[in-house]
């Protein structure tokens, strides 16, 4: 049976790595597009792998879950959750700091293995939190906080990217900068990349477009939401797996 990725507005792919050689696990993203294998890390050992929610063969379009896994979930919770609800749950677990710390050694050497709680309520709570994070990472729905507003006059050229903790600002040249950018937002990593630093430095020697300037602000707001959401996810995760999991 031949299957291939068919991304559109109804299909998403979970992106993660098989190992995190030399890096702590922060290797989880979601996409609605095709990606590069180094999306999560420039370390070629830590390639990104895509797990789509749906697959298609011929005219058939179906959930990309094995029959055994589907039977396990339906039996465990006596309910048929959608692929979106399952993705939301998995995404939440991969962003739970307690999970990342508890299984740090395993996450360095193999694909993430996801535990499932006994109670359906715990699954659903984490699923909702994870799905909100999915929507934020796709830049579809997230709270705007006014971070990384663009200041200064100039030619919008990225000459050198410099962060000032005192000003909570990111300068791209002598006269133009983004602020406020809290330290935690500036330091935030996904995979092996420091998100805002990577985005701006990859544009060194170029002139930022209006879309790129607006994108920096959107990403900063999304990262701030991610930091807060990870705390909420961790609380729900620890409640679901109070005896370990």
A few lines on this structure:
The chain has 8 helices and 11 strands. By secondary structure, the protein is α+β, with helices and mostly antiparallel strands.
Structure description:
The chain has 245 residues and is an alpha+beta fold. It folds into two domains: 130 residues, no CATH class; 79 residues, no CATH class. 38% of the residues lie in helices and 16% in strands. The strands form four sheets. It has a four-stranded antiparallel sheet, covered by helices on one side. Strands 2-1-3 form a three-stranded antiparallel sheet, with helices on one face. A two-stranded antiparallel ribbon has the order 4-5. Helix 2 crosses helix 5 and helix 5 packs antiparallel against helix 8. The longest helix is centred in the last third of the chain and has 31 residues. It starts with 12 loop residues before the first strand and ends in a 5-residue tail after the last helix.
């Amino acid at each position: 049976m031949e299957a291939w990725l068919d991304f559109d507005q109804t299909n998403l792919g979970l992106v993660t790595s098989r190992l995190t050689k030399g890096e702590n696990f922060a290797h989880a993203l979601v996409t609605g597009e095709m990606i590069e294998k180094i999306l999560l890390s420039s370390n070629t050992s830590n390639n990104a792998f895509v797990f789509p929610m749906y697959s298609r063969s011929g005219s058939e379009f179906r959930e990309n879950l094995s029959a055994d896994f589907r039977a396990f979930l339906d039996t465990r919770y006596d309910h048929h959750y959608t692929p979106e609800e399952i993705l939301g749950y998995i995404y939440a677990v991969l962003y739970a700091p307690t999970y990342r710390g508890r299984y740090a050694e395993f996450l360095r050497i193999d694909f993430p293995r996801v535990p499932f709680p006994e109670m359906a309520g715990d699954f659903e709570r984490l699923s909702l939190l994870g799905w909100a994070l999915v929507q934020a990472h796709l830049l579809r729905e997230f709270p705007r906080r006014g971070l990384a507003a663009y200041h200064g006059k100039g030619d919008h050229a990225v000459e050198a990217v410099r962060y000032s903790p005192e000003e909570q600002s990111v300068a791209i040249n002598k006269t133009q900068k983004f602020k406020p950018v809290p330290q935690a937002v500036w330091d935030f990593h996904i995979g092996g990349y420091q998100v805002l630093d990577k985005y701006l430095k990859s544009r060194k020697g170029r002139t930022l477009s209006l879309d790129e300037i607006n994108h920096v602000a959107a990403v900063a707001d999304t990262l701030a939401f991610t930091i807060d959401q990870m705390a909420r996810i961790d609380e729900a995760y620890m409640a679901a797996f109070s005896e370990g999991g």
